[in-house]
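2024-03-11 09:14:02 INFO queue: dequeued item 5-oxoprolinase subunit A, len=252
2024-03-11 09:14:02 INFO validating residues
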Amino acid sequence: MTSIDLNADLGEGFGRWQLTDDERLLSVVTSANVACGFHAGDAVTMRRVCEQAAERGVRIGAQVSYRDLAGFGRRAMDVPPAELAAEVAYQIGALEVFARAAGTRVSYVKPHGALYNRVVHDEEQAGAVVDGVLLADATLPVLGLPGSRLLELAAKAGLPAVAEAFADRAYTEQGTLVPRGQDGAVVTDPEAVVERSVGLARAGVVASRSGARVEVRARSLCLHGDTPGAVELARRVRARLEESGVRVEAFV
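2024-03-11 09:14:37 INFO prediction written
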């Protein structure tokens, strides 16, 4: 049977402000990309999400970012490699404290936002992320875009490299994500997201924004937790996947 992991970005709040419905999404997804305080999240939120994930058997991933709370980690930044590596390790370590306190551990690492897109092509920044992961835990899988420099360098360093696809983001013909500043970058039609999810899981293909067929072989499928109706959409995606003969399970 075909299987796929279903992940979502969680813990994306700060203080009294909450963006994602963490508790309800954790009843649907198999992996949780938890904000580590650099683009969103704080100590209390990280601890709460780790406890809730542990209770439900959901894998915890460190969603590392540029230090950019004001821009939600979506602004382009130039960070010296040594500094970026240290900050990646710092974020993983902070989340690991709360994961272990909840009786589990950080199971993987995934960059967020501008950093995620940067390390698709930028070898220096990708190498810094890999160095940060190695500094924190040299066994951690790294989640990223298929064909990215990040996954290539992670594999060379001996880290498990896990390819990821996006059901609710538009693709270019080259298999990269359409930048969020462009029209149509986010797929908002729920039925389209559901159908794309099945196509990605079963056939490893998705239609680009221009309509071209793009091959995207992935082990994990991401749904963004900060979109309107995210919980109900995640439930629909999981139900349709299972109805289509796809087993939804964590990749680690």
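2024-03-11 09:14:37 INFO annotate: The chain has one domain: 3-248.
2024-03-11 09:14:38 INFO item closed
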